[in-house]
Amino acid sequence: MSVTAFLTDSTLCIGCKACEVACKEWNGIAGDGLEWSGFSYDNTGAVGHSTWRHVKFVENPPQPGFGGNAPEFPSWSFSSDVCKHCENAGCLEGCPTGALVRTEFGGVFLQPDICNGCGYCVVTCPFGVVQRNPADGRAFKCTFCYDRQKAGQIPACAKACPTESIQFGEISELRSRARERVAELHGRGMNDAAIYDPLDTSVGGTHAFVILRGDPRSYNLPPRPEAPMVHLKKSWTSSAVAAAFLLGGTLLAFLADGERGQR
Amino acid sequence: MSPETFRGPGGGRIPDALSEQRLLEIRREAELRQEVKAAGIRPPGAPFPKASPETGYYGIPLLKEPQWSYEIPLYFFVGGVAGAAAVMGAIADYTGADRKLVRDARWIAAAGAVLSPALLVADLGRPERFLAMMRVFKLRSPMSVGAWTMMGFSGAAAATALAGFLRERYGPSLPVRVMENAGQALSLGFGLPFSNYTGVLIGATAIPVWNENAGNLPIHFAASGVGAAASLLELAGHQKNRALNALALGAALFECWEGWRIEGRQMPGLDPLKHGSSGWMIRAGGVLSGPLPLLLRGLSAASKGERSQRLRRWAGVSALAGSLITRIAWLQAGHASARDWRVPLEVRPGS
């Protein structure tokens, strides 16, 4: 079975949100209201327990040629966000029930029949993806359409995307396709185009990389995400030191105390 | 426009001299300048934030806030006290200290052994699935290691207290003695990590204010638990025990240093420890756990008789309250930290 990935090419995204709709429909996710955010055309805000695909609307200062707008209007960048399916996934390592597993396709899958809603994946995800559904009690996130992949189909979002901004395929092939695309964009003068795939961090790369123009921070993507497991050694060392102090201190305190009871 | 201005016919406003004068002003301004500048003609919230490297994505937090309810800080507190009490009970027994102290320490540990799983299970989104935690053991998951430690501790501490009770009630017998000794050894073994692993639990996460303190939180939580457990034992009638006083003093000294360290470190990720409501809670917890009990114990040592006892009891109350507030404060700091989008996006104020 080949290891698969998403390549989200933001330069092709038109912000139609077909991926959000397709994701919700295929996975049967309940609606979460039609609220206006009041700050942009992005009324969804972020990926969460009821939003597994989320289109970001990044408003940029007027810049001729960026997004094809007239010079006096702000230009737009859209980018469809999703669970990154990290190579070193904090949620997966932290999960105490084994509900979160690595599938044969390389994605991180949350088995809803095992999750007991402890909420630890929520605080161990460096991308703020996993969230507990307060009504249901369990945590939810993108399944990488594990069911569809099992049936030989591509994920719902990729299938519904009208501009092929969301591409799906074998990971190494997609990586080289992303590099080719960035080279092509650079050739067209879009020198700020780059791949967001934190390979050189403790996250160790993702299974959902993005082609972006400009600073990833405008897209709410951390420049240097950190897998929470890097803090394990330090904190367990501290725990061992604390235990040694507790044991030694208590022994010392009781031995030094002359008061003896009768057994 | 505030709702109380809708008072006229059909829910509208009643025109008055002021409103008519304002309309004429608008007319005059439009005539003179061909445009009118006023708050009312701008949509609420304008000027709108932009997404940029300096402002992030409209200030929407990158990280998700912890979704634990009040049971979790309470569990941190109860677990810290119970673990430390079990260690004190076992060591007191091994060193041949006062029997009543051993018994009381065991009962505190046993009460914590019952409360801890109850609190942890109650916080689960699906409490009936608690046992799903027992289907795997994951050394790399502090939540998994912690759940197993808690189960081991709960069983051992409850068995120790029960065996002690059976021995006192019906006299010693071999099975009861085996249960008591094995239970005590195990509750010592499990109690040591159980009193501080919650520091690892929140330290090894993606929440900046927690993981920045990963190397210190377990020791901090252990000291907090020791101070609280020693204080609780003193309040249970052992206010003359010098070993407990020494332990409580040591914990208070460490908490003084911890508070000084927290105040001294300057990093954007540590703001929730110093500013806002979480910052004030951290301070309140710190003062109640460190300097205040230290002072009261010092005064207690310098005075005699009933006054000395009373001061020591107040030191105990202060340390107990401080320990509880400290746990709540650290969780609140985690919430504030997750909301601060600037830290994971590495946006410095003013940059």
Summarize the structure in short.
The complex is a heterodimer of chains A (263) and B (351). Chain A has 263 residues and is an alpha+beta fold. In chain A, 27% of the residues lie in helices and 18% in strands.
Based on DSSP secondary structure assignment, what is the total number of beta strands of chain B?
A: 0
Give me the strand/helix succession of chain A.
Answer: EHEEHEEHEEHHEHEEH
Class by alpha and beta content of chain A: alpha+beta
The second-level CATH architecture of chain A is 2-Layer Sandwich
Number of separate structural domains of chain A: 1
Low-confidence stretches of chain B: none
Percentage of residues in helical conformation of chain B: 55-70%
Order of strands side by side in the largest beta sheet of chain A? 8-1-10-9
Structural class of chain B: mainly alpha
Shape of chain A: globular
Shape of chain B: elongated
Count of helical stretches of chain A:
7
Count the E strands of chain A. 10
The N- and C-terminal alpha carbons of chain A lie at a distance of: 67 Å
Please give the oligomerization state of what you see. Answer: heterodimer
Helix content of chain A: 25-40%
Largest sheet features of chain A = 4 strands, mixed
Question: Approximately how much beta-strand content do the residues of chain B carry?
Answer: under 5%
Overall mean pLDDT of chain B stands at 91
End-to-end CA span of chain B: 37 Å
